[in-house]
Amino acid sequence: MKPFLIIDPGHGGNDPGGGSNKLWMEKDLNLKISLYQYERYRQLGVPVMLTRRNDQTLTPSQRTKIIRESGAVYCHSNHINAGGGDGAEVIHSIYGGKKMAEAIAKGLKDSGQNIRRVFTRTLPGKSKQDYYYMNRETGSVVTNIIEYGFADSNRDDITQLSLYYKTYAEAVVKAFCEFAGYSYQIGKTNKLSPKKERKRYLHLPVSASSWRVYPLNAVPVKGNEKGYLNPRKFGGLRYEVIGSTQDHVYIIETRDFGKVQIYAHPKTNALLSEK
Ligand SMILES: [Zn+2]
């Protein structure tokens, strides 16, 4: 069966993508978002395919050929932005109109991400040609380039994308289904609101007088500290875990340093609990 929608995880293989930082490579996050959406669309009965399903290199011409020849009506081209802004952007072709792009942007906004802009752009001096090849070379497939946020944001995109990329991926699924006339239901295993997840708390033992914390946009290793917590001084410290960036590395919000990463392997005597 021909797909109705094709999902394109931007970049891949030897092209990591510019929307990368110390926490992720753009190609990997694009793929995670896309694989998540692919499974959700299948659950919802939307005929769907992917341009790549692993860490594969695709040249622009290979990529656009897959899309043109897919028979799909629509394409999501998933990306993470760079360049120092904050918020999501949706780029549509000068052909095909902006309605789908606006629906996607509204979905992202409703899920908690701010929208920087919905726009279209032409090649310099060529008012009839789209600037971006994903818009220009994908034939009759209505392609939206979705930039979920900025990898180098100095506002909240790095935290938001680390914690909530699935929420944003789901928001696009919901917006697309509603726009295209497919009935939408929340999946069994995913929750739209990250706040509904079971809370966990991190306890730092009173025996420790100095505990490193790291900024969200740095690798949590010695030398990158944002500061030190002093559990002893407070008779031990307790924080709600608001995310995790890798095994045994958690995101907590501290009074003095704001949202930070903290390394808390069981052998450090830190304790995780639901209270
Ligand atoms: Zn990209």
From TrEMBL:
User: Under what name is this protein listed?
Assistant: MurNAc-LAA domain-containing protein
A Gene Ontology molecular function term of the record: N-acetylmuramoyl-L-alanine amidase activity
Q: Has UniProt tagged this entry with the keyword Transcription? A: no
Name the lineage: Bacteria, Bacillati, Bacillota, Bacilli, Bacillales
A single Gene Ontology CC term = outer membrane-bounded periplasmic space
> Which species is the source of this protein?
Virgibacillus indicus
Coiled-coil regions, chain positions: none
- Pfam (any one): Amidase_3
InterPro entries xrefs: MurNAc-LAA_cat, N-acetylmuramoyl_amidase_3
